[in-house]
Design brief:
alpha/beta, two-stranded antiparallel sheet, 248 residues, 25% strand
C-alpha cells in the first residue's frame, strides 16, 4: 500500500466526485437480489468507459497512447482467509460486455473460494517483490507498470474500482490511489429529501462516487462526457435491463 501511494503521488491526477440518484434502482440492488451494489457499479462503469475509451487508455514507455479492446475492472472483493476478513483485488474481465448479474456471480464465487481468482495466483510473487529495495520497487517495478500497458492489463486490469463505502453507513467521499488511468471509489449511500413528479417531498437515495484520472492521458472534455454517462447509467439502471452489448 505504501508503494502504491508513493507511485500515485507522482502522477498528474484530476479528482472529481458526484452523487447519483439511485432511488429507482435501489430496490433491485443488494446481495439477496442477485446484484450487489459493487457489481452494479462495475457493470455501469465498464459501459461508460467503453463509450469513452480514452478513460482507460495508457501511455507506453515511448509516450504513445495505447487503447484496449475490452474494459477489465479491477474490483475489491471481501474474502475470508484463516478466519480473517480482508479486501482482495480481483479483475473482472470484459466487464463492458457482461451483465451485472454475471459480474455479481463471479465476485461471489471468488468470495467463496479466493484461490479461484487470478489475483490470488499472482500473490505468489509477493515475497519476491518485497525482497527488492523500496526505492527500486517504487521507481522501477510499480512505478513503471502504467507504462507497460499489456502487463498492467494482465495484472490489475484497465480500470480500478474500490467500494469501501459499502462497508459503512451514510454519505461520504474519498479518493483512491491513481494506479490506472481511471480509478473509482464508491463512497457511500445516503437518503436525502427530493421532489416527486407531483412536487411532493419524498426521500431519495443517493450514491456517492469519487474518481481520479491521469491528466497525461485524459483531458477535461472526455472526462466530463464520461462522468455524465456514468451518472446517467447509475441512475437509469440500464445494466439491469440489458445484459450488455453483443459480442462477436
Amino acid at each position: 500500500m505504501r508503494d502504491a501511494g508513493a507511485v500515485a503521488a507522482r502522477r498528474h491526477a484530476i479528482p472529481a466526485w458526484f452523487a447519483a440518484d439511485v432511488t429507482d434502482v435501489y430496490p433491485a440492488l443488494g446481495r439477496d437480489s442477485g446484484v450487489s451494489v459493487t457489481a452494479y457499479v462495475a457493470a455501469t462503469l465498464a459501459r461508460a468507459v467503453a463509450a469513452q475509451p480514452r478513460l482507460h487508455a495508457s501511455r507506453d514507455a515511448l509516450g504513445r497512447v495505447v487503447t484496449y479492446a475490452a474494459v477489465d475492472v479491477n474490483a475489491t472483493v471481501e474474502v475470508t482467509l484463516d478466519g480473517r476478513s480482508f479486501p482482495m483485488n480481483h479483475v473482472l474481465r470484459d466487464a463492458d460486455t457482461r451483465s451485472a448479474h454475471d459480474l455479481h456471480a463471479e465476485m461471489q464465487a471468488v468470495k467463496a473460494r479466493p484461490s479461484a481468482s487470478e489475483t490470488a495466483r499472482l500473490d505468489r510473487s509477493t515475497a519476491w517483490y518485497l525482497r527488492v529495495p523500496g526505492p527500486l520497487r517504487r521507481r522501477v517495478l510499480m512505478g513503471s507498470l502504467h507504462r507497460l500497458p499489456d502487463l498492467q492489463r494482465r495484472l490489475i486490469g484497465t480500470v480500478g474500482l474500490s467500494s469501501v463505502g459499502m462497508h459503512g453507513r451514510g454519505a461520504g467521499v474519498g479518493f483512491p490511489f491513481l494506479l490506472h488511468t481511471l480509478d473509482v471509489l464508491v463512497g457511500g449511500l445516503d437518503e436525502r429529501p427530493g421532489f416527486d413528479a407531483d412536487g411532493h417531498v419524498v426521500p431519495r437515495h443517493h450514491l456517492w462516487v469519487a474518481l481520479v484520472v491521469d491528466h497525461d492521458v485524459v483531458d477535461g472534455v472526455p472526462l466530463v462526457r464520461f462522468m455524465a454517462a456514468f451518472r446517467d447509467g447509475l441512475e437509469s439502471g440500464a445494466v439491469l435491463e440489458h445484459p450488455g452489448p453483443a459480442t462477436t
